[in-house]
């Protein structure tokens, strides 16, 4: 997990980006929002995946219910947001 100093550094860098966006135009702002959205979502998915894995001392990882409860959402909502996307097979199997 991120250390407190690392998180503060990330927050300062984010604030600089937001300030620069305010000096630019709407397209620049949209590009920064899209970039941050992708980066944050990727980081959250990675964190959820790590939390779900068994620990080195042998205890089980967190369940989707645990993660959902911590976020105030259902197990299903947490899994849909942070879980790996499953590719549905066509009806009748692979052709």
Question: If you had to describe this structure to a student in words, what would you say it looks like?
Answer:
The chain has one domain. The longest helix is centred in the middle third of the chain and has 27 residues, at 26-52. It is extended and about 50 Å long. The chain is mainly alpha-helical. 66% of the residues lie in helices and 0% in strands.
| Series of H and E elements | HHHH
The number of helical runs is 4
What general form does the structure show? Answer: extended
If you average the pLDDT, what whole number results? 83
* Number of individual domains: 1
Structural class: mainly alpha
Quote the distance from N terminus to C terminus: 43 Å
Low-confidence stretches: none
Largest sheet: none
Q: What share of the residues does DSSP label as strand, in percent?
A: under 5%
Share of residues in helices: 55-70%
Number of strands: 0
* CA-based gyration radius: 18 Å
Write the layout of secondary structure elements.
Blueprint: H1 4-23, H2 26-52, H3 64-71, H4 75-82
Helix pairs in contact: 1-2, 3-4
Summarize the structure.
The chain has 95 residues and is an all-alpha fold. The protein has helices at 4-23, 26-52, 64-71, 75-82.
What descriptors fit this protein?
95 residues; mainly alpha
């Amino acid at each position: 997990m991120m250390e407190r100093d690392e998180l503060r550094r990330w927050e300062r860098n984010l604030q600089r980006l937001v300030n620069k966006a305010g000096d630019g135009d709407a397209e620049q702002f949209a590009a920064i929002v899209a970039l941050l959205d992708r980066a944050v979502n990727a980081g959250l998915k990675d964190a959820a995946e790590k939390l779900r894995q068994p620990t080195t001392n042998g205890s089980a990882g967190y369940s989707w219910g645990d993660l959902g409860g911590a976020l105030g959402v259902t197990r299903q909502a947490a899994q849909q947001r942070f879980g790996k996307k499953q590719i549905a097979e066509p009806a009748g199997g692979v052709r």
